[in-house]
Amino acid sequence: MKMSLSSSLFARRTAGAVLACAAAVCAATATAADHYPSRPIKIIVPFAAGGGSDVTARLIGRKLQEVYGQAVVVENQPGASTQIATRNVIRSAPDGYTLLLATTSVVNNAHLYPRLDYDAMKELVPVVGIVEVPPFLAVGPGIKATNVKDFIAEIKAKAATEKGVTFGSAGPGSTLHLASEWLIKQLGIKAVHSPYKGSGPASVALAQGDIDFSFDNIPPLRPMVDAGKVRLLMVGARNRFPSTPALPTLKESGLPDEELSSWFILMAPAQTPPAVVASINDEVNKILKKPDVRSSLIDLGLAPMDTSVDDLKKRMRNDFNMWGGIIKDAKVTLE
C-alpha cells in the first residue's frame, strides 16, 4: 500500500521528534553525570545507628565527602528486615543521590518472604562492594574440641544422644543462622535452632553453655573469646581473615570450598546513569585501599572488597542461588 505525501511527511516529523526527544534525554543524563555530584548524597542504612553497617556507611561517607566536596549524609531506616529502607531507595530518583547500604538481605529476602512486593535484583543496581562480613564458627564450654576435626566428631556423637545438638544465631533467616544450617547439612546431622534477638544475646548464650555452637561475627564474640569463655575454630570463608590468621577456612577444615560471608555494598535505583555508578565505584575502591580505612574495617571484623560492577552482579547472582538453596533445604520462611 502506497503512503500519501501527507502521511509520509507526518511519519518523518514524528520519527524526528522521537529521536530529538531521545537525544535530549541522553544529553541531560550525560550532563547530570558530568556534574555529579552537585548536591548532597544520602546513604540509607537499613539498621539502627551504631551497628557494623552504620559504622561502615559513616566511614565511607566521610571519605567520599572529602573526595567529592559535597556532604554525604547517612540516614538510618531500620525495620522489616531491611525492607523499609530498600523499598524507599527503589522509589527514589535514579540520579545517584540516594544510595542503599545493602546487605545480603537484598538477595535473601526474596526467598524468605513469599509476599515481598518488590524485586531488589531488578529494581536496584549494584554500585560498589565495600566489605565482606565473614562468619566464625564458635563453641562454648559444652564443647571440648579445639579444632574442626575434633568438633565434627564430637558434634556427630552428641547428635546421636538423647540431648542432641543445639545452635544459636542472631535471628531466624540471618546469614549467621543459614551458615549453621549449611554446616548441619554437610555433617548429616539434626540440630535444634535457638534464635536470639541479635548477636550480643547469642554470644552470651554460647558463653553460658546454653547452646553448643554458632556462627557469628568477630565484634560480639571478641569479649567472650578474650575472657576464655568462647573458642573460635574456623572462618566460614574462602580466605583466612587478617586479624585471625591462625584460623583455617572451610576448605582447609575439610569442608566444601564455599563462601558463607555476607557483605555490605552500595546500591542505587535501576536506571541510575552508568557514568554516575562508575564514578562512585572508582572513588570508593580508591578509599578502600587507604591503609587507615583498611585497618579500621579489619578491626571491625570486616574484609575490604575491591570489585567492579560486573563482579558484584556475578556475586549477587551466585549468592541468590546459594542462600536460596540453603533456605529451601532448611525450610526457612518468615512473615
From TrEMBL:
Keyword presence, Kinase: no
Superkingdom of this entry's organism?
A: Bacteria
Which InterPro entries does this entry report, sorted A to Z? Answer: BUG (IPR005064), Bug_dom1 (IPR042100)
Signal peptide boundaries:
1-32
* Pfam families the record matches: TctC (PF03401)
What keywords appear on the UniProt entry? Answer: Receptor, Signal
In the record, the note on similarity to other proteins reads:
Belongs to the UPF0065 (bug) family.
| Name the record gives this protein | Tripartite-type tricarboxylate transporter receptor subunit TctC
